């Protein structure tokens, strides 16, 4: 097979035609022609287009399609419950996808069920390590470290000495964002006030997809004196951004992806920075590892050391703070600062 692929490429070169991915079989992916990799990705109900968590996962899949020549099927949970999520995972596994990647901790119960039904399929879940099985791998991120950096940026940019945090749902994962953000802000100004609002609490997970609630919460924080608001709330963050944009001099801080790049034109100038949670890297690297033969369960962690988290610099307004932020990043990397996660 390898000789046939090389010969095909030589023929294309000699004929003056460039060999395109379509001209070379996807069998070339492994270099041995042993298999075609078909990845399944299950998004939560917000799906692609949330300009945050799901889109970051989608970006990693898009990169794998382009660079690794994998095939893929993407689905969005049809219902906001364990049954709906299990149905999505089951659909992908039964259709031949392997690996199957679940986007978000809300898939934990569904993964636990469906992984037993398909023992020969590798399942990966982002943001949860509660399921221990030979065919389940957990992809975890040091959200508190990235949030520490944007918390420092918030304190540097604040003129009132008061900043805000909007959490989508009051769960341990989002508390990691809050803890890091608060610690980062206080590393700059020990007297700064950090006001916190959550949009919902379990079993109500609507806080991740309710822009109206995000708008109202951010407006309340701003009315109380905060002039920088960090929204770790999924799709609800769009509403928080709108509230910030309506207040002259106020700043918003995005999450997961560089939301300065995706924000509406009227909002974009007010997005100071974003906490980058490199879910795209996690998804891409997990697919790459699978191709290389790493098909074991376990836990993989993405922190500052492996570019798993960080902060965005697209808005020129944040660049004047980079020396202080880079110093904070180095102190975390060196171990001089241990960022709290709760």
From TrEMBL:
Residues 42-341 form the ABC transporter substrate-binding protein PnrA-like domain. Keywords: Cell membrane, Lipoprotein, Membrane, Signal. It is found in: Cell membrane. It is a lipid-anchor. InterPro entries: BMP_lipoprotein (IPR050957), Peripla_BP_I (IPR028082), PnrA-like (IPR003760). The keyword Zinc-finger does not apply. PROSITE patterns: PROKAR_LIPOPROTEIN. Its main location: membrane. Residues 1-18 form the signal peptide. CDD domains: PBP1_PrnA-like. The keyword Membrane applies. GO terms for cellular component: plasma membrane. It comes from the Bacteria. Coiled coil: none annotated. Belongs to the BMP lipoprotein family. This is BMP family ABC transporter substrate-binding protein. It comes from Actinoplanes nipponensis. The lineage of its organism: Bacteria, Bacillati, Actinomycetota, Actinomycetes, Micromonosporales.
